[in-house]
Amino acid sequence: MAQAAQTTHATTEAHGGAHEDVGFPPFKTETFAGQVIWLTITFVLLYVLLSRLVLPRLSGIIENRRVTIAGDLDEAAAMKSRAEQAGAAYEKALSEAKARAQSLAQEARSKASSEADAKRKALEADLAKRLGESEAVIAQKKTAAMANVRGIALDTATAIVERLTGKAPAPQVVEAALDQSKA
Amino acid sequence: MASPIEQFQIKPIIPVINFTNSSLFMVGAVAVIVGGLLLATRKRAVVPGRAQSVAEILHDFVAGTLRDAAGAEGMKFFPLVFSLFMFVLTANLLGMIPGFFTVTSHVIVTFSLAILVIGTVVVYGFVKHGTHFLGLFVPSGVPGWLLPFIVVIELISFLSRPISLSLRLFANMLAGHIALKVFAGFVVALLGAGGALSILAPLPLLMAVALMALEFLVAALQAYVFTVLTCIYLNDALHPGH
After folding, report:
1. What Å distances lie between residue B63 and A46, A145, B72, CA to CA?
2. Which of A19, B5, B155, B233 has minimal CB crowding within 10 Å?
3. B-chain residues near A38 (CB < 8 A)
4. pLDDT (tens digit, 9 = 90+) per residue, B76-108?
5. Using CB atoms, which residue from B5, B26, B48 is nearest to A25?
6. Touching check for A27 and chain B: CB below 8 Å?
């Protein structure tokens, strides 16, 4: 400050010592014109540079960011709804598949059981038929056997009597005795 | 020892074109503002770095202040308000650097800026609203007999706006710098006195440090106050009916 004051000493004589002579700098009207001129020049320059160069760039950056963020958010929302749609479609397909599987299983089960029924019936009928045939054969064989029994009894009785008495009885007598015992 | 008002001395640098230390710091403020903002925004990043964040915060801060006071229509004055805020803020803060000249400590500078604001209000008000702009001085719902007094009061209040707007900024910057210089002067004076007085020298030094912090606050705050009042006055030009 002091050396600055020295340099101006040449232009303003009073600078070095008594400041009262100089007066209060902000109220020195002879400096007003110069300050106003330079303020006008610099402020107009500032206004032009800011409004033409700096502010468009700044608001461009801010607007660009706003657009980017809004775009990203929109995209995220679209993707979310797409994912939800895919989820719903999956659920639907799953429930449809489940229902179809159930109906298929039901169908297969009923088909299998009806087939088994038919087979069982056929088998039963077959068995009953064979049983009937067997019964008929048995009955036939039984009658035949029963017819033979009389012959055997006659022979046996004749043989027993011959052994006991030493002579064979008459067949009519044996037969009569057999008829008697049978009754 | 230089006097506390020595720092406000206008010193010619290029006398032919009236270029003084004041002009130098005006040019410097413009260079710092434009250069700083262009440098900070050169990457145009979507995710801003530190410097770009500062530039964007300044932009959004002034835009928010203007929109709050004057509404969306007020945004047509945004370049003007932003220029005023940045110029006053930068001039104030540059003045805080020791040895630097404070442009806003001269009443003619702050008065010129205030006249620019009020001139904008008056010219825009009349161009946009014609004589309806005079409704600014006639509040609605005032009884007829009271109206002459109210109109006179409103007129005086309107005319005192450029004075209060300019004096507030000027006086704050002037007083702060004088106080700083006075306390700094005490330190030197006490040390020069020698002996027991030298021991007291740190006290005004502490005061000077505290004042320095206060002056940084005042530098930013006065720039903000100037801007807010500008926005409020511009709102009158946009919506003259109360």
Report:
1. 18, 130, 10
2. B155
3. 18-20, 22-23, 26-27
4. 999 999 999 999 999 999 999 988 999 999 999
5. B5
6. yes
